[in-house]
Amino acid sequence: MSKKKSITYKDSGVDIEAGEEMVNSIKGVVRETHNASVLTDIGGFGGFFRPDLANFDDPVFVSSVDGVGTKLIVAFKTERYDTVGQDLVNHCVNDIAVCGAQPLFFLDYFSTGKLKQNVGYDVVKGFSKACKENGVALIGGETAEMPDIYSEGEFDLAGTIVGIVDRDEIINGKNIQKGDLLLGFESSGLHTNGYSLARKVLFSEYDVSDHVEQLGTTVGDAMLSVHRSYLSLISELKGIDEVNGFSHITGGGIVGNTKRILPEGRSLDIDWDSWDRPAIFKLIQELGNVPEDDMRATFNLGIGLIAVVDPEAADEVRDWAEKNDESIYELGTVK
Question: pTM for the full model?
Answer without folding.
Answer: 0.94
